[in-house]
Amino acid sequence: MKITVTVNGTRYERETEPRTLLAYFLREALGLTGTHVGCDSSSCGCCVVVLDGSRAVKSCTMFAVQADGHAITTVEGLAQGATLHPLQQGFWDAHGLQCGYCTPGMLMTAYALLQRDPDPSEHAIREALSGNLCRCTGYQNIVKAVRQAAAMMRTAASHAPASEAPASAPASAPEPVAP
Ligand code: FES
Ligand code: FES
After folding, report:
1. C-beta 104 within 6 A of ligand 1
2. Based on C-alpha coordinates, what's the Rg of the chain?
3. Over the stretch 110-158, which tens digit does the pLDDT of each residue have?
4. What is the CATH number of domain 2-77?
5. 160 CA distance to ligand 1 centroid (A)?
6. Is 86-159 a CATH 1.10.150.120 domain?
7. Buried b (16+ CB within 10 A) or exposed e, 62-78
8. What is the pLDDT of residues 65-116, one digit of tens each?
9. In ligand 1, which atom is closest to the CA atom of 131?
């Protein structure tokens, strides 16, 4: 089947088998290997991407064809050139990772949360991340990282001129078409 998806602001038209999971479509058809696969069974959260701006989805539980016509943000879409997204900076500053395998999923789950709730409580952060497993960090620093990022993003939004997009928004426009 031919599907059209917009990933990190770039429009892709690709043929895919109906059985292909979105995680593998992103990694193998588009080469976006930042989306990790840890369990393939909806348990670990390594594969989380953001659908249509604010919805965290486990891409191992969704077929690529179900994403037809939708916009997807992956971890590759967070940084603006050499400038880390506040969430990435937060994980860096608060030591929110060790091996890093879970980190793309943590970042994207947190990204979706902050799109919906710019000032989440610690409880809300822990609840949002409850589907993301980390074998290394013990979670405390991950929560600290998200809180730091939320504060950075609120500060950036309060200083941004009304005509400018928030500093937290990943690149999305114009929408180039991939060959
Ligand atoms: Fe998708 Fe583990 S790989 S939840
Ligand atoms: Fe290693 Fe989370 S940093 S699994």
Report:
1. no
2. 16
3. 999 999 999 999 999 999 999 999 999 889 999 999 999 999 999 999 9
4. 3.10.20.30
5. 36
6. yes
7. bbbbebeebbbbbbbbb
8. 999 999 999 999 999 999 999 999 999 999 999 999 999 999 999 999 999 9
9. 4
